[in-house]
Design a protein that fits this description.
alpha+beta, Pseudouridine synthase, 17 strands, seven-stranded antiparallel β-sheet, four-stranded antiparallel β-sheet, single chain
């Protein structure tokens, strides 16, 4: 038997809406039948699809091969929404998941997951990523709801008004602050690129850096750190050392901010360092930074 527990963020949702969110691969007719048959229990009691949930409520699901398969499929469809507005959606991307469709990522990528999420909510928008993160990089990705919003948010990106800060573990001892200004190949030419950094902590072998991109070239951080003699941990492509149990390069986008198209406020989303990267930090004797989870509009 599988149990699902409602959190404070689920308060006021109907049982059916909660199940649709938790098991998106399940047809709505199947979920309704599961509830009406009495095989699904709310706090050990039969319930209805319109019953409202409170924090701490527990839904007990019956043992079923079909339900198990649907839940496994749903795990591949889940997205973590950090902040939503009328024309945008900020979503967390785990390391290992591509933003776009590509070789090896045809069936599962973040854009497809977001598109399916919008369709399940019957929202008449296409999912358009405003920017990208490398497959091995975790952090927030901003999606536009539809082509018109994509054009507006894309102009903000091109104007340098979309700000991203990263956390990176690199080889060697790095100065307290500085800028990386080595050119980066882009579209067959060397292009100017600037990355500003601050050393948060470290030792004689490793440095934990916070970085801000002042330009947006492909693999900019990875190339510039390697050129500076401080490649990213886990970045075999650019000569970075690989630590035991390291599955991805150590690069995480910790904050993303952009102005609201109305011009009267700025949106910010923050993501803490993932658990696997915190484990790697502890393994090399470095304390993880305090990066609170924060989604705000101000």
């Amino acid at each position: 038997m599988t149990k699902l527990t409602a959190t404070a963020g689920d308060a006021g949702q109907t049982v059916l809406a909660f199940l649709q969110q938790q098991i998106p691969a399940a047809p709505i007719a199947y979920l309704r039948q599961l509830i009406r048959s009495g095989r699904l229990r709310l706090n050990h009691q039969a319930t209805s699809d319109r019953a409202l949930l409170q924090p701490g409520d527990t839904l007990s699901l019956p043992a079923s091969q079909r339900l198990t398969r649907l839940m496994e499929e749903s795990q591949r469809e889940q997205i973590e929404v950090l902040l939503e507005g009328p024309d945008f959606l900020a979503v967390y991307k785990p390391a290992g998941l591509a933003v776009h469709r590509g070789a090896g990522h045809e069936e599962d990528n973040l854009t497809r997951r977001v598109s399916n999420w919008l369709q399940r909510r019957k929202l008449p928008f296409s999912a358009v990523p405003v920017h990208r993160l490398d497959v091995g990089t975790s952090g927030p990705v901003l999606f536009a709801k539809g082509r018109r919003a994509a054009s507006t948010l894309g102009k903000l990106l091109m104007a340098g008004l979309v700000k991203k800060h990263y956390l990176a573990l690199v080889a060697g001892e790095v100065a307290e602050t500085g800028e990386l200004q080595t050119p980066v190949p882009a579209k067959g030419q060397l292009r100017t690129a600037v990355t500003r950094y601050r050393r948060l902590s470290g030792n004689s072998s490793y440095s934990l850096l916070q970085l801000e991109l002042l330009s947006g070239r492909k693999h900019q951080i990875r190339r510039q750190l390697a050129d500076a003699g401080h490649p990213l941990i886990g970045d075999g492509r650019y000569g970075g050392p690989v630590l035991p149990d390291s599955q991805h390069l150590f690069l995480h986008c910790c904050t993303l901010s952009w102005p609201d198209p109305s011009g009267d406020r700025r949106h910010t989303v923050s993501c803490p360092l993932p658990a696997d990267l915190q484990v790697l930090l502890a393994a090399v004797g470095i304390k993880a930074p305090d990066t609170p989870v924060e989604s705000s509009a101000h």
